[in-house]
Design brief:
Strand 6 and strand 7 form a beta hairpin. Helix 13 packs across helix 15 and helix 19 crosses helix 20. It is built from 21 helices and ten strands. It is of the alpha/beta class and 499 residues long.
């Protein structure tokens, strides 16, 4: 039958095959149980013979028996028990929409087994589950099904493993309009061969993938730290987030920075020597792809991508399609995935693998609110970040009590008075708070007064100057003592009090 309406049904090759085996005695199912198994394994959800093809099952596109086989095999490889509970089947396996999502389903099963209270919450919906598929599965000799569990029949373990291995080469076979012809035919979903065996390394890798995702560190975030120049944004990243260079990639955005710099690009590479030299074109990963690969391959460590001066470059253009990955789930994993062959090949070793940001990768960015003539960050971009203002508190700076050069005025006093003046001096100054001097606008060495008599020997050694060259020593010391004025006064004149 190739229609959901009996009055439109036609005789198929599968029917003729059954009839020839039982000679019309269809009640003797033992005569054609191999055909029953073949046809059940060929069931596809959802096709046009399904009354809910355009309804509740419109997004389901998979062979459910093959998904179940795959789940049971992987659970067995991981735990030694090729079995799942009926609750795990009903609410996790049976709700999976694509075969390719089996890793997510396995992860949910493992998480569910650690949260016993969730199981009882699921059980209240037991009566609402459609059991028709279960009744079909019970006819498979490869499965042992009772009220509470579904398990692989270990007598058929090799057969099931071989079928899954063959099927995974093309999990979407006949998932088109050709399906109805295939369903009514005498063909199997597989041409099973005795010499086909599981790829052991691939199986081990998949088991490790499941383990990694279960144990992966959670809590990845996108945080944008903003504040006045010198308020301590980069210092906050180093002290509050990460100071291990091996766990981070740091990049500075600027007007000429591009998506290819950030993500990576295909560049010519010279390989070989002498006459065997040849030029190949290979993908060279950028900072985003490099840190993504580290995070994916090291689930037990938290990694950080640090973007300094994010608004000095065209951030939305630099991120490009990566922008889609900034939406995150509660655990820190990207809510959405993208297709990017270059990134996928570099990170996963498989160009078809969807790209996502894992839960153990955080993106931290800094932004100076006082910058002029820079790119603005639109609302759509900003909403994907946790915005954190860095308070400009000079009292917390270690050099707050240092006197400025040879004066009696401390850095804290100068900073406080000048910032009060910036805020109150003119009502016409736009965003005057953003023009304030940051607590770390200057460092302790800039505040220190260098005396010719006291520091002569030190300066001569530091800058490799002859001790007898007083002219050069005097000029160097004057240059060092002028740094405060050159830096602070220039900023106040050109930016803070510019109307």
């Amino acid at each position: 039958m190739t229609s959901s309406k009996y009055d439109e049904a036609i005789i198929t090759d599968a029917y003729e095959e059954i009839n020839s085996k039982c000679n019309g005695a269809f009640e003797n199912t033992y005569l054609y149980e191999d055909i029953i198994q073949r046809q059940i394994e060929k069931m596809f959800i959802s096709s046009s013979v399904d009354e809910e093809y355009q309804g509740v099952r419109q997004h389901y596109r998979l062979y459910p028996v093959m998904l179940l086989y795959k789940i049971l095999l992987e659970i067995g490889h991981s735990t030694g028990n090729y079995s799942i509970t009926m609750t795990e089947y009903r609410y996790l396996v049976a709700t999976t929409k694509r075969f390719e999502d089996f890793l997510d389903t396995l992860l949910l099963i493992k998480l569910l087994r650690n949260e016993n209270h969730v199981v009882s919450e699921f059980e209240q919906f037991r009566s609402k589950f459609d059991n028709r598929l279960i009744q079909a599965l019970k006819q498979l000799p490869t499965l042992n099904i009772d009220r509470d569990n579904i398990a692989l029949n270990t007598n058929f373990l090799k057969e099931v493993a071989n079928k899954v291995f063959i099927f995974e080469e093309n999990p979407n076979v006949f998932a088109t309009e050709n399906y109805l012809d295939f369903l009514g035919s005498t063909r199997s979903l597989f041409d099973l061969k005795e010499d086909v065996t599981l790829d052991r390394e691939d199986s081990a890798r998949r088991k490790q993938d499941i383990k990694d995702e279960t144990n992966r560190i959670k809590g990845g975030i996108n945080t944008l730290l903003y504040g006045v120049p010198g308020s301590g944004k980069s210092f906050t990243i180093q002290t509050n987030y990460c100071d291990d260079f091996d766990l981070m990639e740091r990049v500075v955005f600027h007007p000429d920075y591009m998506n290819t710099d950030f993500v990576g690009q295909i560049l010519p590479t010279v390989k070989g020597e002498g006459e065997e030299k040849e030029i190949t074109y290979d993908f060279t990963p950028g900072p985003f792809t490099r840190i993504l690969k580290k995070a994916i391959n090291n689930p037990d460590k938290h990694f950080y991508l640090v973007i300094e001066e994010i608004n000095r470059g065209n951030a939305p253009a630099i991120f490009g399609e990566i922008f889609q990955l900034l939406d995150r789930e509660i655990d820190g994993t990207s809510s959405y995935k993208i297709t990017n062959y270059n990134i996928a090949s570099e990170v996963f070793g498989d160009k078809e693998t969807p790209v996502y940001i894992p839960s153990n990768l955080s993106i931290l960015a800094t932004m100076n609110t006082a910058d002029q003539n820079v790119f603005t960050l639109d609302t759509a971009f900003q909403r994907r970040w946790n915005m954190k203002m860095i308070e400009n508190d000079v009292t917390k700076a270690k050099h707050a009590e240092m006197k400025i050069l040879d004066t009696t005025v401390t850095w804290e006093r100068f900073n406080t008075v000048v910032n009060d003046q910036i805020i109150t001096s003119s009502a016409t100054t736009l965003s005057s708070e953003d023009k304030r001097l940051g607590a770390y606008f200057v460092t302790a060495d800039v505040l220190e007064y260098i005396s010719f008599d006291t520091h002569k020997d030190e300066i001569a050694e530091r800058y490799n100057i002859n001790l007898n060259d007083n002219t050069k020593l005097d000029r160097t010391i004057k240059d060092l003592n002028s740094r405060f004025g050159d830096k602070v006064i220039k900023y106040l004149w050109d930016d803070a009090f510019k109307f």
